[in-house]
Every structure is written in C-alpha cells, then in structure tokens.
Write a structure and sequence with these properties.
The complex is a heterodimer. Chain A is α+β, with helices and mostly antiparallel strands. Chain A is built from 20 helices and 17 strands. In chain A, a hairpin with a 2-residue loop joins strand 4 and strand 5. By secondary structure, chain B is α+β, with helices and mostly antiparallel strands. Chain B contains 16 helices and 28 strands. In chain B, the strands form six sheets. In chain B, strands 4, 5, 6, 7, 10, 11, 12, 13, 14 and 15 form a ten-stranded mixed beta sheet that branches. The chains are: A alpha+beta, B alpha+beta.
Chain lengths: 460, 549
C-alpha cells in the first residue's frame, strides 16, 4: 500500500510502539499536531489503525492561585501583618487587596479574634503556617481551592492511536508528495435552515406552475376563517379547544366588509341566491366578528377571493404559511404548522383539473404515486384527501386536503358565479423525513448540529 | 371525526354478501368512510360529520348495498300513528323540540343493542353537540301506557328510578348525584324547570337529555321499542329520529308513526332536489350520459327521475341531511363513479408566476445573511409575555393575545424576533462557539386595521462568543449596507435590554427601522447565556422601501 510520508512514518512508529498518544507521536516524529491527527485519521480510514478518545481531567492554578503561590494566601498574609504589629481592621483591609476574604478565612480557621476594630492572634494564630500555599505549590488540590477560585479544571481529550492487525501486516511503501485524499476539517459556514429551504422549494414549484403568491395576517375574523367557508356557527371546529380566540384584539369591524357580510348571512340561513337551502339557523354577526388566529391558511384563500373581480379570471394563487390550533404540545402536535394553500378560479374548471394541478405539483415535489379519496370539509364539495404511497411501509399517508369550494362559499365572496379549486397541503412531513426527525418539536429547536448536518433538499 | 367499531360478520349478514378484507380496506373507503382493520372480525370505521347515517353497522350495510352490490335504494314505509305524544308549552324555554317513533317486532341481541347504543352515543357526540342539540332515548314499551306527554317540571316535582340506580330520585338529585347528571347537567344550567317525558299513568320514561327510567331499559328480550328524540333544532331531531328508527327497521322491526303534537313522526318523505346533468358534466369534467348519472345516484341510495326538460329530479332519503345544493349530489355521483376513475386533466390556465415583493426581498436578505456566516433559525410564532417582554427587561407594550391558551408558553403572538433568537442561543449553550443566528419572518403588531392587528416582516440577527461584542453585530449591518446599497443611520440610544452605551437606534431615510446593541448582563442571565451576545432587529418593509426606490 502506498502511503504519504507522514502517514507512513506514523504507521512505522506504531508498529514498533503498538500504540501511543497523538501528543507522543508529535514529539517522536517532530511534526505538528494537526499533521499527526490527519495522518492518524487517514490510517483509520484505511483500516490500519484505530483511534480511541480518552478524557483527561486536568487541574491547574488560576491567576488567583498563582498569586497565592507567589505571595501567600490572604489569610496568612493577614497573620503576618498582625505579627508585624498592625492590628487595625481598616488598615489591614486597605493593605490586603482581598481583605474580606483574609479576615473571613482567618476567623474560620480560628487564627484571629476581632474586638472593637482591633485584630488579635489566637494561640493557633501564633503558630499558624500557610498550608494553602504549600498545598498549591505541591499541586495537592482540594475542593476548597476550587471553591475559592484558586484552581480550575480542564478536560482534555486525548487521542490514543493503536495499530490494527492489518496495519501490522500490510506491505507499505513511502511515497513523497502532497496527499490530496487526506481528510481536512470542514469550515464553519452560514447555512439555510432545512425547513425554510424546503418551503422555498415548494414555493418555487408553484411559481413555475404559474401561480401568484398570496399572503395574509395571522389574525383574522371568524367571518373569513369560518363563516365565509360555510362552517356553521355551532360547528365543533369553532369550539374553544380547537381554535385560538383572541382577547386582544377581540373583534373585527365587520362593517368594513361591505355586502359580503349580508351574502354570507343568507348563504347560512337559507342559501340566498346560491341555489342552496342553507344550514337553516339564525346566523349571528357578532359571532362572525370574533377574531381568531387563522386555524387554516384557507382563510387567506377566502380573503384573496374577496378581492377578485370578474375580469381577473381565470387566475391561480398559492401561499405557504403558518396556521394555528389550540393543541397540547407533544412529539406529533404543535400549536402552529405550515400549510401550502392554493386556489384556481375560473368559469369552466372541473374536478379533473383539480386532480391535474395536484398531480403536477406533487410530481414536481418528487411524489410520483398519489391518490385522492373522499373526505369531508364544510366548504368543499368533491372533498378529497390527498395521499401518497409509501413504498417501504406499503401504506398511504395523508398529504393534505383539497376540493372544490361550494357555491355557498364562492358566490358570497366573489359576488358572481365561478368554479374554485382549492387545497391546503402539509409540508412538515417532508421536512421531518429530510432531517430524519421523529419529534416535530425538533423543527423549531435550532440545534446547530442538526442545521449544519442536514443535507439540502431537492426531490429525488 | 367519529370512529365506530363494527363486526365484519354482522356487516356481511346485513349486507347479504361476503366481502373480502382487501375490498374493505381498499375500496370501502372510496364511499367516504374510512375503513381500517383492527383485529379478527373487528373493523374501525371513521365516519365524516356530514354522514351521521353511517354511524351504525345497519347504516353502513344499507349504503354498501348500493355502493358495492348496486341494489335498488331501500324504500321504507310506516304504519299510521296509533299513539300520541303531546307537547306542553312549558318546554319551549328549555328544550322545545321532540319527535317519537314506535318500532315493533325487532329481533335484538346483546351485540345488536351495543351497536345501537354506539349509534346513539356517536349521534350525541357529533350532530347532537354533546346532547345539547339532540338527545335520543330508547325504551322497551312493555310497561308503558300511552299516550305520552312532554313537559317541563320543577326539579323536586317528579321522581323515578334512573338507569344504574336502585332508588327513586327527583330530578335535582339526579343532576347532583348521577354520573350522567354530572356529565350533562350543564345543558340545563340556566333553567329552573327540567323536561320529562311521561306516560298516561304518570310514569317518567325519560329525563332528557340526561337519563331514562330503568323501567324501560332495553334488553335482548325486548321486541317493541319507543324512540324519543329531544333537542333544540327540529331539523336535527327529525334527522336523528329517522336514523335511529330506521336502524331498528333494518333489524326486522315494523315502523309505526307517533302523532307528535298533531303531526305524524317520523316523516319519511324524501327531500327533492334538482340536478342539471350539463352542470354536473362541467363541474366534474366527466362525460357521463344521463343514464350513467342515474345509475351512479342509485348506487348512493338516491332516487333520480328524468324531468321533461332533460333534467333530473332526485329524491334524497330522510336520513340524509347533508344535501343542501345540487353540488352535493354531484359529489355523490363522482364518489360512485370513483375518484380514481376521474382522469387528471392537463392544467391549461396560462399565467405568469409571481412572488410577493416582500417574499422576493426576504429571499435576498436570507442569502445575504447566510453569506455573512450566520445559520438561519426557524422559531415559533407563538410566544409568551414572559419571553417577549420579561426576559428583555422591558415593559409589556401590548401584543396579540389569545383568550384561551392551553399554556402560557404559547399565549401571545411574537412582537419581535430577537427573544426567539435568544432562545436559540439558550438551546445551543453547550455547543461550539462563536454562534450566529438570523431569521427573516413575520411578527404581529396591534393597529387600526379591520381585525386590529397586522403582520410585519422582520430581520433579526444575534452573535455570541467569548470575544464577541457590539462591533460584531455592527459589522453585519455593514454587509447589509454594502449588498443592498442602503444607508443605516445609527443614533446612540438606550434600550432596557442593551448594555448602556452599546445600544443604537437604526434609521433608514429618517424612518425608524430597528435597533442594534449588546445584550445586558441581566438579559444574559435571564437566558442563562455565559458569553457576550450582540444583535439587531430590522423592519424589512422599511429596508425594502429604501432599496427599491
């Protein structure tokens, strides 16, 4: 086997010593530490050596400790001052830079008494010796030295390299020159967060498909979050345990929505002009005025519809943003999550077009096999859950919801008839897979190693 | 979403045919109720809230006789009323709606009864809104003496022995002491009179929506049943009565109507809806002939009839309340046709994709920040007053706040990104140093918009390390100035969270755009950070405006 010079030399040394520390090899070979490290790593890579790490706890004097060794411990210097005839507490404190410590420690050891501001030596004090200094000098450290900040602990990692059987036996040849294959350290860099990067990839795909971006505020009225989406006011989704209602700001000014409010009321009560018979109950505008944190980004789609005029059609919009649910936090639930929402608005759109857009997007995201199955949302008819097939587990997993907005949703918002394809798709699962996470909370923990070590995402 | 457990063998005997496990797990869900195998003959079926008629094995068998076997829709009929139920005006205030039905000659077993109780409980939970909107009672008729009366009485006025008790109790005591009273008493909280159904001998059948008399408890020997449904919505009461009494009919019973307040109940007449086949073809995108549409409607237990103008009139059975619009019928046709069998079209609306300007600018900012050597953080939007204000030693200046948070940790919407980045430093305090994080994302601010709060885009940055200080944050501001060509005008300022003298306000074109500084000892202590931290936060919209003009 051909080995570069330093690697060759290290192996040769290992063959005679069997094993040694990097530091020792450094001395023996006369080459710098990082070079020995690299040579050892290369040997390990080739299966010729093994590296084991050992932790060595090392105690050493701090600056304060050094001063004690030089000049004596504060308490002993105090004793020396008193022996020299200085007895005033004030004077002693100005004389010693750590006067309080000195007095405290000297009293604790029973070396001095203080009376009326005068210090006197006790019996023990007269025969006292500077043990602390002696101990520090002898490097015989105790807890007290640590507590006083005289001694500090450092943990060193020592690398011990030992030769493997293969390393003993293989024939080696020393080749001169630079080793281009030797590993080097990875530089520290800036980096995008993997979740954001995936979100950007999803956004880019919608843009490529000709969608225009829409966004909205986290705070929305119940009117847009629920009522405009034909969710009756006694629907369980509107209950406190699912929805964050707001204390501040508590209500929207629904008068600023114009005709839309009356149209939504009719849709709920008797269907209005939509051809529906409605939910048949008394709709309450005050309930609709209550503010919530949007429980789905479909509220953003509803807001976008309310802005459109007939001549804007056909049109298609997307948004990737967060929505909120009042949920208990655990490994699979968080009170906030991303949805990729989209709408296509036109006069002659069909259920088959809905399937077409979903298939196009998911194939661009790397999901070749998807299907849609019937489900229920109050605001869509042809409601369809989007699922993908996991080959390994032979199971269908949910990717999101989709459907065609009901006329009771479309007509009050737009003010005219049209067909609206809509979806709200998840994105968290893709990020969890990309970073190999099992706990959803990790997506928000910003662990440096996870961010640094997660590969960039592109559909494969 | 409601889940029910059913026995495959029971399902098959009601359906009249054996079904393979594969067909159940693959094809059955295509009707809009999700089937999953539990173990042995047990299956879990997830039923969506628009189809409460599927909450029993009887209802499922009825639906799959059409969907799987393409049998003609069931035609139910009922005998004329022989029994009366009169409603007293005293119930108007407390629980105004009631319906009743008699089903005779039912063949029951322990298992069937459990299934019926499951149906009853699931209806209570879902369309019954935990018994507030509707509650159902099933009674063995043997001991009863019709006619029946529905009235409201004072809590001490009547006594009876409720189910699961040995002694007579008055209504007030039942609410206080009986488990069901404790669980559902809230529905009657604001009333001083409670509803009861009694027979002509003065025996209480039921104290809705709480509990029945044990006298009428249904057992496997029971053959003749009285069903009552009470509630606050006549439509919901009607629907539940149809679902419950027709489940008993599926068990071999004969339905006999009850005259409730002068009207026969349940009213089995179907609702009629028009369906325009052309509209269906357009919305579904499916080229189906009118005949094919009719066949698919029948698979869903709906009865279509062609009208003179080429349209369809569709009869929707009384147990289905989810058809509000012809759109709902179109969905049923597409479900019967199979979502899988609708071929995806090639989308053909031509339009240019457009990023939101603020998103485009944010993308550029993220690139600049990464190039400066920082890691992008991804933090929670939901925060707490302690985190946003307390940890920065600054007064609470008001934030979007929830009325009903489950935990204080997620009780407001963040007002600044900075505290969230300090949290990232805290979480990494045992990692390598120096550390640099940034984030570009929204916060929420109170204002005078329609809702009273709007989002605002921010850019924040923190740097921490043994030798890091104010200058290290300042340097990154220079990177932004260099790459964006904007001038950041710094003015020395005091912030409660910065070290005095190492704090500045940032102005852009004379407008407030943010702050930069070194975090105070107290802030570091609050976040348990052992090394100096400096950072800044900027209003992205102000930066963007200066950049774009």
């Amino acid at each position: 086997m051909e080995l570069p010079p330093k690697t060759y030399d290290l192996l040769a040394l290992l063959r005679s010593e069997n094993e040694l520390y990097i530091g020792d090899a450094e001395n023996e070979l006369g080459i710098p530490h990082p070079s020995v490290n690299r040579a050892a790593l290369e040997l390990e890579d080739r299966g010729l050596a093994e590296i084991n790490e050992e932790q060595e706890v090392r105690e050493h004097l701090t600056d304060k400790g050094e001063r004690v060794v030089e000049r004596g411990s504060p308490e002993f210097r105090l004793v020396k001052l008193v022996r020299g005839g200085e007895t005033g507490v004030g004077k002693i404190q100005t004389e010693l830079e750590a006067g309080d410590v000195a007095i405290g420690k000297a009293r604790q050891r029973g070396w001095i008494d203080i009376k009326d501001g005068e210090v006197s030596l006790t019996e023990q004090g007269r025969s006292a010796e500077d043990e602390v200094r002696a101990e520090l000098e002898a490097e015989s450290f105790r807890d007290e030295h640590h507590d006083r900040g005289l001694v500090d602990t450092e943990i060193d990692t020592l690398r011990r390299v030992s030769v493997t059987d293969e390393g003993e036996e293989v024939e080696i040849e020393r080749i001169e020159g630079f080793n281009v294959t030797a590993p080097a350290t990875t530089p520290i860099t800036g980096k995008r967060h993997f979740y954001r990067q995936i979100i950007d990839e999803a956004r880019r795909r919608w843009l490529e498909m000709g969608f225009q971006e829409m966004n909205g505020d986290y705070t929305v009225s119940g009117l847009l979050n629920f009522d405009a989406l034909f969710t009756p006011q006694d629907h369980p989704a509107r209950e406190l345990h699912d929805t964050f209602y707001l204390e501040n700001p508590s209500e929207s000014d629904t008068t600023r929505f114009g005709d839309m409010v009356g149209n939504i009321r009719s849709a709920h009560e008797d269907g209005g002009d939509t051809g529906s018979r409605g939910w048949r109950y008394d709709w309450d505008e005050k309930e609709a005025a209550r503010n919530v944190l949007r429980t789905h980004t479909t509220a953003v789609s509803a807001e976008k519809l309310a802005e459109l005029d007939e001549e804007d059609l056909p049109a298609k919009f997307f948004g990737v943003s967060r929505a909120f649910r009042n949920e208990t936090v655990d490994a699979t639930h968080l009170p906030e999550f991303y949805q990729s929402d989209g709408i296509v608005v036109g006069k002659e759109l069909s259920f088959r077009d809905l399937k077409g857009y979903l298939e196009e997007y998911f194939s661009r995201m790397g999901f070749e096999e998807i299907r849609i199955v019937p489900t229920y949302y109050p605001y869509t008819e042809m409601s369809a859950e989007v699922q993908f097939h996991n080959e390994e587990e032979e199971e269908w997993y949910q990717l999101g919801g989709s459907g065609m907005f009901r006329p009771e949703v479309v007509e009050p918002l737009l003010g005219f008839e049209a067909t609206v394809l809509a979806w709200g798709l998840g994105i968290g699962r893709i990020a969890m897979n990309a970073a190999d996470l099992s706990d959803i909370r990790e997506l928000y923990r910003n662990d440096i190693e996870t961010i640094e070590n997660t590969e960039v995402w592109l559909p494969r | 979403m409601a889940h029910i457990q059913i026995d495959k063998r029971e399902f098959e005997s009601l359906l009249g045919e054996k079904v393979s496990e594969e067909r159940l797990s693959e094809d059955a869900s295509m009707l809009g109720a999700h089937w999953e195998h539990v173990e042995g003959p047990k299956w879990d079926v997830e039923v969506y809230p628009d189809r409460p008629d599927l909450l029993s094995v009887e209802g499922l068998a009825r639906a799959y006789r059409g969907f799987f076997l393409e049998q003609d829709p069931e035609q139910y009929d009922a005998e004329e009323p022989r029994i009366e139920l009169s409603k007293d005006s005293s119930v108007e205030e407390v629980r105004p709606c009631i319906g009743g039905a008699v089903v005779k000659g039912v063949r029951l077993s322990e298992k069937i009864i459990n299934g019926l109780i499951q149906l009853q409980e699931k209806l209570h939970e879902t369309s019954g809104r935990r018994r507030e909107k509707i509650a159902i009672g099933l009674h063995d008729m043997t001991e009863l003496e019709p006619p029946f009366t529905y009235r409201a009485v004072r809590p001490e006025q009547v006594e009876f022995t409720p189910l699961e008790r040995e002694e007579e109790m008055h209504l007030g005591r039942i609410l206080d002491e009986h488990e069901k009273g404790q669980e559902y008493g809230w529905i009657l909280d604001e009333h001083d009179k409670y509803p009861v159904i009694e027979d002509s001998a003065g025996q209480v059948l039921s104290f809705p929506p709480i509990i029945n008399n044990q006298l009428t408890e249904v057992s496997p020997q029971t053959t003749d049943l009285f069903v009552d449904v009470t509630g606050t919505s006549q439509e919901a009461v009607h629907r539940a009565l149809c679902i419950m009494s027709l489940a008993l009919v599926e068990r071999g019973g004969d339905l006999e109507q009850v005259e409730v307040d002068g009207r026969p109940a349940p009213n089995l007449s179907p609702e009629k809806h028009e369906l325009d086949p052309d509209y269906l073809r357009q919305v579904s995108g499916l080229e189906l002939s009118t005949q094919e549409i009719k066949e698919r409607l029948e698979m869903m237990c709906l009865r279509p009839q062609e009208t003179d103008d080429g349209g369809l009139e569709v009869e929707v059975p009384c147990y289905r309340g989810d058809v509000l619009h012809q759109y709902d019928l179109i969905e049923d046709v597409v479900i019967a046709h199979g979502y899988d069998n609708a071929e995806a079209s090639e989308p053909d609306i031509h339009q240019h994709g457009d990023e939101k300007p603020v998103e485009e600018f944010s993308r550029v900012l993220r690139d600049i920040m990464v190039s400066s050597g920082a890691l992008e953080a991804h933090t929670h939007i939901l925060s707490s007053e302690e985190k946003q204000f307390g940890s920065l030693e600054r007064p609470d200046s008001g934030a979007v706040r929830m009325r009903n948070p489950l935990t204080e940790d997620y009780s407001i919407v963040r007002k600044d990104l900075l505290p969230e980045l300090l949290r990232a430093l805290h979480d990494n305090r045992d990692s390598r140093f120096p550390q640099r994080f940034f984030e570009v994302d929204d916060v929420a601010e109170l204002d005078d918009s329609v809702t009273g709060a709007s989002n605002s885009r921010r850019l924040a940055y923190v740097v921490s390390g043994e030798d890091m200080d104010y200058t290290d944050a300042r340097r990154v501001l220079h990177v932004l100035e260099r790459d964006l060509g904007v001038y950041l005008d710094l003015r020395e300022a005091e912030m409660p969270f910065h070290v005095d003298g190492r704090s500045a306000q940032i102005l852009v074109d004379g407008e407030r755009a943010g702050n930069v500084g070194q975090m105070s000892e107290q802030v570091l202590e609050n976040w348990e950070l052992n090394r100096p931290v400096a950072g800044f936060e900027l209003e992205v919209e102000v930066l963007e405006e200066s950049f774009r003009c």
